[in-house]
Design brief:
2 copies of one chain form a homodimer. Chain A is α/β, with parallel strands linked by helices and 316 residues long. Chain A folds into 2 domains: 127 residues, 2-Layer Sandwich (Nucleotidyltransferase, domain 5); 173 residues, 2-Layer Sandwich (Nucleotidyltransferase, domain 5). The first copy, chain A, is built from 10 helices and 13 strands. The first copy, chain A, has a 5-stranded mixed β-sheet with strand order 3-2-1-4-8, with helices on both faces. A 5-stranded mixed β-sheet of chain A has the order 11-10-9-12-13, with helices on both faces.
């Protein structure tokens, strides 16, 4: 049996796993990324961890056919990282070359969200579909587009940056510095911003009570919890969120027309109270033909393993 | 030498050509589509025309390696047409199978705008680029996305329907029945609607004089012509148009991050007065990284031959 090492590099922790050719995850380990010690130390530590895992599993080093990595930043040609979000590493680093020199193994990388999307597409909720778009709804909104067996990485590594679709001209300021981004409306942060804005003029509601009147305490989950309990004020916010979520997803459908939309991230955990509304509103934004032939919105299946499995899927 | 037949089926006319393996167009002929006579008669007429062209060029029928077709409608799996825009032909017709039975030649099809995009990507303004998105700015807005050697046709044949990106929530009514579509703002029709709306309350301008005060006379070209002559009123409309065009193109960049945007269609003929403005405004909507590494907006190169050449490029 041959194996692939999947590496999911995060700001704080790096998750590493061994995956067999069928996509079975044999073993995982999490280490500190410690990016401040420099790229070479981090890469050496990753390779040593892989070697340790091989030993534990009694797998020979020669049976590793390659290493796949997910990295927080735009990746060109599956090897060069344009810049690292939050890492003190230089621009346009050829991480693939660095790691190949350390390990002697073929190494491919892609953006972390693209890698999650690839994992879900190949081994998870999109398995068997020719096309899927993964929408990661968390603090921000990330995305990855899978078509014809490949992720659309983009010319400069920015393919699938759906969080920065502009859905309102001159709209709300986004963390990226531009205005009117999908993410400024439909992410957890977007929900929190809207909830706080509304709470400033309406305090007679369950949500205000739940957070003890402390606006800085509010989390998106509070809004969903109160909405589930019937709080009309919170339901109004969920409706607002669902409308923009439908608009953003509808736009993805009109451009890509995928077989599946795969939702991940914390906001997706809100469940039916959000998803049912999005599905109802979708026909206002998506062309009818994109909703036909069995198109489905599904939840991601791989959870925390999506990054490792997707990284491994880069080596196929 | 081997050859491919490229067929560009339109509402009124069908253009047919023979293309050699290097992409050289040897000969073309235009025939009436006459869709009202039924799909079989049209397909037979197309094959007879191809046979006639072969004879004229002294090419043996066995040297045709396949037939590619562009068709006005969504196409699944390069063979089945979901529905025909304006043709009295039934839904979900397997045109590929029908034509293969008539001709004995491998036949592949795609949507007409996708085929134009493939032609520009392989033989025209996108030649040598790994990714390009063609934006056809005419009465409506069509699009085709080329990535990694392939057109994104979509699960139901609606890939690249960028004209129906929603850029204004509950915005202007579009011909498709939905609201706020890119096409409702930035197509020739979009310009004309905005111009007429403004002319109804402002008649002291060059544009009003040019159309002799007859609103039903107005064409998008009049607006560009007056703007080029310095008419402030018309320049205002061009600015409005350019803003939405930048928003739509910016959204395409954020999702696909292509190496090139290829502009085609009548509106693109407006030239610098429109394009310069779009380029200036683009940085408000497109993520900065998508505009780096030599990204370019270019004009289409193949003109009326794009459909035939792109259809031929389906057979590669």
């Amino acid at each position: 049996m041959k194996y692939i090492a999947g590496v999911d590099i995060g700001g704080t922790n790096t998750k590493i796993g061994l995956v067999d050719e069928s996509g079975k995850l044999e073993i995982t380990q999490s280490i500190k990324t410690l990016s401040e010690e420099g790229v070479y130390k981090t890469m050496h530590r990753i390779w040593e961890t892989i070697q340790g895992l091989l030993k534990k599993q009694n797998i020979m080093e020669k049976d590793i056919i390659g290493v796949g990595m997910g990295i927080p930043g735009p990746v060109k040609n599956e090897e060069i990282v344009g810049f690292f979000a939050n890492f003190p590493w230089e621009r346009n680093l050829n991480i693939s070359k660095i790691f190949e020199e350390i390990s002697g193994k073929k190494t491919k990388l892609n953006n972390d969200v693209n890698v999650i999307a690839l994992g879900e597409a190949v081994y998870g909720a999109g398995k068997g579909s020719n096309s899927s778009v993964t929408v990661a709804l968390g603090t921000g909104i990330g995305g990855g587009i899978f078509v014809n067996g490949q992720i659309i990485s983009g010319f400069s590594g920015a393919g699938g940056e759906i969080g920065h679709l502009k859905i309102v001209k001159d709209g709300k300021l986004c963390g990226c510095g531009q205005k009117g981004c999908f993410e400024a409306y439909a992410s957890a942060t977007g929900i929190e911003r809207e909830a706080i804005s509304r709470l400033m003029v309406n305090k007679k509601n369950m949500l205000y009570k739940k957070i003890g009147g402390d606006l800085s305490n509010l989390e998106a989950k509070d809004v969903f919890d109160c909405a589930k309990l019937g709080d009309e004020f919170s339901i109004g916010i969920v409706d607002y969120e669902a409308e923009y979520l439908a608009m953003g997803i509808g736009n993805i459908l009109n451009i890509i027309n995928p077989e599946k939309i795969i939702l991940g991230g914390g906001v997706a955990l809100a469940g039916d109270i959000l998803l049912k509304r999005v599905e109802e509103k979708l026909s206002k934004y998506a062309m009818p033909v994109t909703l036909e032939n069995g198109f489905k919105i599904v939840l991601g299946k791989l959870g925390n393993d999506a990054g490792i499995l997707g990284a491994a899927a880069l080596i196929r």
